[in-house]
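Input record, target 12 of the design panel.
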C-alpha cells in the first residue's frame, strides 16, 4: 500500500561488512537497497573497499567470503566509494513535502 501522505517516500536499507567487531576494524564492503513506499525495489548499491588485511580479523574475513584476488579486481578506495554512496543516497532522498514530522501538519 502506497503511503498517501508521502507518495514519493523512500527508504534505504544499508548493510556493512566489516573486518571484525571492534570499531577500529576496516569496512570491507557496503551494500544498500532503496525501496519505494510500496516496498518495491528502486535501486541497489554495492561496493568493496580497499583495506589493510593486517588489521582485519581472519575469522571475519572468512565469514565475509573475502577473496584477495576478487578484492584486488573490484575494491575501490574509501574516498571513491564514499562519493558513489553519497550520490546513491542523494538520488533516493525523500524531499520534504512541507509537512512537519514533529507535528504531522503542513
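The sequence produced for target 12 reads:
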Amino acid at each position: 500500500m502506497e503511503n498517501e501522505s508521502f507518495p514519493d517516500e523512500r527508504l534505504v536499507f544499508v548493510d556493512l561488512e566489516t573486518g571484525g567487531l571492534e570499531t577500529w576494524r576496516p569496512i570491507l564492503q557496503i551494500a544498500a537497497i532503496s525501496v519505494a513506499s510500496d516496498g518495491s525495489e528502486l535501486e541497489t548499491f554495492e561496493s568493496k573497499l580497499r583495506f589493510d588485511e593486517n588489521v582485519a580479523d581472519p575469522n571475519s574475513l572468512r565469514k565475509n567470503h573475502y577473496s584477495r584476488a576478487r578484492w584486488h579486481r573490484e575494491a575501490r578506495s574509501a574516498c571513491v566509494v564514499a562519493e558513489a554512496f553519497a550520490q546513491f543516497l542523494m538520488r533516493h532522498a525523500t524531499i520534504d513535502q512541507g509537512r512537519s514530522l514533529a507535528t504531522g501538519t503542513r
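The longest helix spans residues 78-91.
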